[in-house]
Amino acid sequence: MSMNFQDYVSKKSQLSVIGLGYVGLPIALELAKKFKVIGFDINPKRVELMRNKIDPSNELDSSAFDGADIYFTANPEELKAASFYIVAVPTPVDDHKVPDLLPLQRASETLGKVLKKGDTVVYESTVYPGCTEEDCVPILERISGLTAYTDFKIGYSPERINPGDTQHTLTKVMKVVSGCDAESLDLIAQIYGAIIEPGVFKAASIKVAEAAKVIENTQRDLNIGLMNELSQIFNKMGINTYDVLEAAGTKWNFLKFQPGLVGGHCIGVDPYYLTYKSIQMGFEPQIILSGRKINDGMSAWVAKKVVQLLLNIDKNPKNCKVLIMGATFKENVSDIRNSKIFDLYKELQEYGVNIDIVDPYAEAEEVLHEYGVKLSKEVGSAYDAVIVAVNHLAYCELDETFFKSISSENGILVDLKNLFKGRIVDLKHWTL
Question: 394-432: per-residue pLDDT in tens?
Fold first, then answer.
């Protein structure tokens, strides 16, 4: 239909966003302030919520929907009215750490049925280099009967959404864009450029843009992995890791990463996309996988440490009551996907510990469905150990008086985020 940017500005042509989760909805709503947008999601319940200005992911206020020229639908037929498609579906890994491309493949099948000559498809989902052209394009061609690059154009623009971050929001972060030729790159850059304040960066190719995205989180993963390994070493030495990081951080070029449980749908997942493709091509990555191994093993290490702390004060773990504060994968969000807190929960259960888990953001029903774990409605008392696992704002404001009030005699505060450094006098205080 249209490769002309002005047709979108005048609303003669429409955009569409496929997949309206953490990534898709913010993009759809921002674009809808400038263009006419169709928002598509396969879940009719989510669509109904969005029609009522409710973000199912609990990230956006209802005001984010104001002034947005957007039509929400769960009917794929209605996508035919668009000519520029943005795919923002999840790309998780399965239990064997193998990329699960099913949502991406299904989205491509849906698009294949509505594609017309002159249309443009841009993928945002995190993938390994080559996935867009080698895995998605053949599906689009097979189902549409059209030929990529001549009949329709392809692009890739990796998402940079950071859930819970009110500073680095979508429009404030430069966006990487790529296209299959100069014409498509130009249009894609103009569309995104209309909403991104710092502008766009035109990547050399689709594969380069895919690789750039996957290494952003791989780099963070490795740096956190190093901190986690250091934390284990310094614990053996009886040194506080955060004291060491504070001292080292006085040098201008020291990168200020911290140890912790690495979950979520980005840092704990993206490196596996890169290593999967790498192994497929005959190269066995070592550094990336060793970082993943350390980070994936942190929950077990913390659980073992908590049990040791209990044994050291002559408490039998099987008679102990432990509270875990925080269940989401990061602070101030409701997202529980790939949260390592549940690994910690299960590891402690293996030792026979009795555990309560609370979180002000997580949905109890979702937690039960996803992990088979029951969230406690409220904090109890006489806990032998309290583990502050997520630095939610509400937890940062707590003090020693609170922790003492819910702890048993000789209670231990396990402060994974080092939130209470210098603020705990009487309780035994342990941090990574």
Answer: 999 999 999 999 999 999 999 999 999 999 999 999 999
Q: Which domain holds residue 113?
A: 5-203
Q: How many domains, in total, are found in the chain?
A: 2
pLDDT digits (tens, 9 = 90+) for 30-81: 999 999 999 999 999 999 999 999 999 888 999 999 999 999 999 999 999 9
Q: Tell me, yes or no, if 320 is annotated catalytic.
A: no
Active-site hit among 131, 136, 266, 320: 266
Are 51 and 172 in the same domain?
yes
> Who's near 85: CB < 8 A, 6+ residues apart?
15, 16, 17, 18, 79, 111, 119, 120, 121, 122
User: Any residues with CB less than 8 A from the CB of 402 and at least 6 apart, and which?
Assistant: none
First to last CA, the chain: 57
Q: Domain end: 185, 203, 221, which one? A: 203
| Residue 83 lies inside a defined structural domain of this protein | yes
b/e code 373-393 from CB counts within 10 Å (16+ = b): bebeeeeeeebbbbbbbbbbe
Cβ–Cβ < 8 Å for 412, 385: yes
Alpha carbon distances (Å) from 140 to 92, 131, 148, 243, 335: 21, 13, 8, 54, 31
Two tokens at 267? 């840092």
pTM: 0.92
